[in-house]
Design goal:
With about 575 residues, this protein is an alpha+beta fold. It folds into three domains: about 90 residues, OB fold (Dihydrolipoamide Acetyltransferase, E2P) (Beta Barrel); about 240 residues, BirA Bifunctional Protein, domain 2 (2-Layer Sandwich), CATH 3.30.930.10; about 120 residues, 2-Layer Sandwich (Gyrase A, domain 2). The chain contains 16 helices and 22 strands. The protein binds aspartic acid (ASP). Aspartic acid binds next to strand 21 and strand 22.
Length: about 575
């Protein structure tokens, strides 16, 4: 039996066609001798009936043997159902079967996915990922991933970009994470590093004159199992020559527009709003603002300098956030937010209620009439509100109120996952101070071009050097980073020096790149949107694991293959490696 159609395509106008379908038995029922199968494949589900009045007893017996997830092929005739099943795309028809072949049996799966997605524990889903991927939702996610990848390839190819692969076995790259190392058998004691990104190679391709490059690139970063991370993830890696940041902005906007339009039928408005980093931190407390809702942070440091209230008077920064409609929070509920603020580094969480134009409770008695007037003016609320204050170092205030803002956005139902709000965050500082190591680190990476007017400050005032780097943010998620690159050796050396790299380190790590830059490096710029993150936001999934076919578990192991695993002594000997057992 060779299938003539898939399980998602037959409709009313196929009535009376003789067809052969193949797939998995999704559900089966025996209603008084009449056998009903829901036959499933990647494309959908079709109902099949075996009627003992029409087919031989042998066939009925064979069909009765089928259980969930058996693989079968059936021959039959398309019939229009008197009572259409509105839940199925094929719900207007059913197949009146006249033959069946059991292609393969299945033992009982460890969980079911009849409701579109398995509700089993993630560990189990990942152990049996091949079954988990049979579910409607996971299949849909992988189809969307394919569409997004194809839209990307088509868009960039049309714009003249060449898809070029770069090595997976290479030397350390500068994205700031730990490298995964691969022992080199032929060079005992030496290691390849898996690339944290193709950064250096894409810049070398610009030196080669490739002009416009892209790659759906796998990146490897050995980070702790915190949050929603994967040791390997995929980037849409892009680089172009003789362009500035505006080119990268409009290229990426066009790409995002095409991705959403082709894969979801959604027309994303372009261009995206551009928000300087300093404004983002001031108004949203974070460098990846969620623009689906307002709730902006309001700065009152100027007025609180003269406050009678010691906590305000002495603080480097005082800001508040006014949450409309939350004025009736109980003491206990407020305590919950206070705990959260403390978890983010605050010493406490001052609040006041605004009810019918009057302030009540909390720190009301410490506020002067002037303070109150200013707060009402800035708060921009129409009715009653709960006002939370942050008074501390600027970075702590931002972290705490930025966190609360996002939390209220969620709790107030202001974060519709179907609402897609992009923005650019621009003008990042070039360096950030690493207190632990007592040195300056590159905020993006060390090949990022500083703003021309700040080049003089690199040596003595690094905290005030801005860079030509940018992030693309979608619904509060950082989707991409990129920058205009340094193509001038002198500036590059200044940056290396500021990062306290010794000449030996520079030579060892980047000597080959600096050498290449002696042979005519064009001005260039690039960006790298994260494909997994993008898909996570598009699908509204909670983790990136839901949009990756075979991800690692949260603890970064693989329940399916049991990787990472020990290897044999012979393998270690061949690699000249001895392992210290813990
Ligand atoms: N290589 C950078 C990253 O992975 C992106 C870029 O600058 O293009 O974040």
């Amino acid at each position: 039996m060779k299938r003539t159609h898939n399980c998602g395509e037959l409709r009313k106008n196929d009535e009376n066609k003789n067809v052969t379908l193949s797939g998995w038995v999704h559900k089966y029922r025996n209603l008084g001798g009449l056998l009903f199968f829901d036959l499933r494949d990647r494309y959908g589900i079709t109902q099949v009936i075996f009627d003992p009045a029409k087919v031989s007893q042998d066939i009925i017996e064979l069909a009765s043997k089928c259980r969930n997830e058996f693989v079968v092929s059936i021959d039959g005739v398309v019939k229009v159902k008197p009572d259409a099943n509105r839940n199925l795309a094929t719900g207007e028809i059913e197949i009146d079967a006249n033959n069946i072949k059991i292609e393969n049996e299945s033992i009982t799966p460890p969980f079911n996915f009849l409701k579109g997605r398995s509700d089993a524990k993630e560990e189990l889903r990942l152990e049996y990922r091949y079954l988990d991927l049979r579910s409607e939702v996971m299949t849909r996610n992988l189809i969307l991933r394919h569409k997004v990848t194809m839209a990307t390839r088509n868009f960039l190819s049309e714009k003249g970009f060449l898809e070029i692969e770069t090595p997976t076995f290479t030397k350390s790259t500068p994205e700031g994470a730990r490298d995964y190392l691969v022992p080199a058998r032929l060079f005992p004691g030496s290691f390849y590093a898996l690339p944290q990104s193709p950064q250096i190679f894409k810049q070398l391709l610009m030196v080669s004159g490739m002009d416009k490059y892209f790659q759906i690139a796998r990146c490897y970063r050995d980070e702790d199992a915190r949050g929603d991370r994967q040791p390997e993830f995929t980037q849409i890696d892009i680089e172009a020559s003789f362009v500035d940041e505006n080119y990268i902005f409009s290229l990426t906007e066009g790409l995002m527009h095409q991705i959403f339009s082709e894969s979801m039928g959604i027309e994303i408005p372009v261009p995206f709003e551009r928000i300087p980093y300093s404004v983002s931190m001031e108004e949203y407390g974070v460098d990846k603002p969620d623009l689906r809702f307002g709730l902006k942070l309001k700065n009152i440091t100027d007025i609180t300098r003269n406050s009678e209230f010691g906590v305000f008077k002495n603080a480097e920064c005082v800001k508040f956030i006014a949450v409309e409609g939350k004025e009736d929070l109980s003491r206990k509920q407020i305590g919950k937010y206070e705990d959260y603020a403390k978890h983010l580094g605050a010493k406490g969480l001052a609040f006041v209620k605004l009810v019918d134009g009057k302030f009540e409770a909390g720190i009301e008695k410490f506020l002067t009439d002037d303070d109150k007037r200013t707060i009402i003016e800035l708060a921009e609320v129409n009715g009653n509100a709960m006002i939370f204050f942050g008074a501390d170092r600027t970075s702590t205030v931002n972290k705490v109120l930025g966190g609360l803002r996002n939390r209220f956005g969620n709790e107030l139902g202001l974060t519709d996952p179907k609402d897609f709000k992009f923005c650019w965050v621009t003008d990042f500082p070039m360096f950030e101070y690493n207190e632990e190591a007592d040195r300056w680190d590159a905020m993006h990476h060390m090949f990022t071009m500083p703003k021309e007017e700040d080049i003089d400050k690199i040596e003595n005032d690094p905290g005030n050097v801005l860079s030509k780097s940018y992030d693309l943010v979608l619904n509060g998620v950082e989707l991409a980073s990129g920058s205009v690159r340094i193509h001038d050796r002198d500036i590059q050396e200044k940056i290396f020096k500021r990062l306290d790299l010794t000449n030996e380190e520079i030579e060892d790590k980047f000597g080959f790149m600096l050498k290449a830059f002696k042979y005519g490096a064009p001005p260039h710029a690039g960006i790298a949107p994260g494909l997994d993150r993008l898909l996570q936001v598009m699908t509204g999934e909670e983790t990136i694991r839901e949009v990756i076919a075979f991800p690692k578990a949260k603890s970064l192991n693989c329940p399916l293959t049991k990787a990472p695993s020990e290897v044999s002594q012979d393998q270690l000997d061949e690699l000249n490696i001895s392992v210290k057992k813990k």
